[in-house]
Amino acid sequence: MGLAEQSPHNPLKVLHARLEPRRLEDAVSVIAISNWELDRSKLSRALVLACPPPSHADLRETALAIIRAYLDHETHIRNQLMASLEPMAKAFMEILKNQRPADFHGLRDWYGLCSFAARLLLAADVQMGLSSEEVQQGALMGGVSRSLSEEATRLVKLCHEKQLKFVPAVWALQLAVLNNVSGHDDSESLDKMVESLSKPQTGSEGMDGVPLLSDIYPEVLRASKRLDSLLGDVDGRHIMVITDSPGPVIAWIQHRAPLIGNWNPESLVGSPLEHDKVSTDIYAQSMIQAAIVSMAQERRLLILHNVDSIYAALYDVFNSNYSRASGPNSQRYCRIAREGFCNPRCAVADQFKTVLVVTRKRAAQYEAALLNRFAKLEASCAH
Questions:
Q1: What number of other Cβ atoms are within 10 A of residue 45's Cβ?
Q2: DSSP label at 244?
Q3: What is the DSSP string of 85-106?
């Protein structure tokens, strides 16, 4: 509802008659869900339930649920993860409160961080023979891509070199932080999260003196390595690359995509003409149609740049809000918000990912609803 509420034409005024009908026979039940606080004329016509901002305890409980979903068996790795959650949740809460611009990072970054760390440690657990055969052949391994398995293999190798019995959870968490709490030109966010990992926690037995991954494998800090990791995570989040050199970065992504994830990259670059930028008719619809066609192609990596007029139509795509038809090997579908009353459900390939390439100035102007849908990464020609 937020986008409609911001419109100068006030389209949500049509709800007034539904919320306060003149005749009993016209009464219908209305349930409205919004990320935005609506104006008083609507709030006064309904019973309002406001969800307060989460506390660090809420973040910890949500993270525990995600971790238990992937690591449902009791292991040292799971215990380490759980021991690190309290300081990490507090550090992330500080980021949410103090970041500028506000809402640059959001709760989806926290969920993505926990999911990435759990999947990476699940793959490492399997490779070191610490998980049961049931887990190794279970459905959860379907969320572990080839690239994620290769990343786990590197961690296992380092683990053997350091003569450790299992991969330290702090290593996976640092990679998860780099992949999900990044993209800002101010490195304070990353420093706070990494600092919380460097302190030994109660419950992290056997990890005394274990260095951070960046201390023994500095290459993980390179933007090119993080981009490779995000591209290779087929089931991971969509990506936003923030750069002041969009042309070379797009060329780099096109070069790396086939090598990392066997992607077939396609670039959709918007027109620089002012008339095209403000157009909401023929030009925008043609770009949306091009995106719809690309979505249905298997192993397609869709690179978007300077096509702001179509991003609102693709919100469900960016949010990975897919549905499936019934039956085995069924097709995925996603709603596309085209103009007017046309909101078709379009086919989405099982292996499809988008990369949004934007400048720092433009990223600072985006709404939180768009920013939070992506794993963000800052990149430049120097990286």
A1: 15
A2: S
A3: HHHHHHHHHHHHHH-SSTTSS-
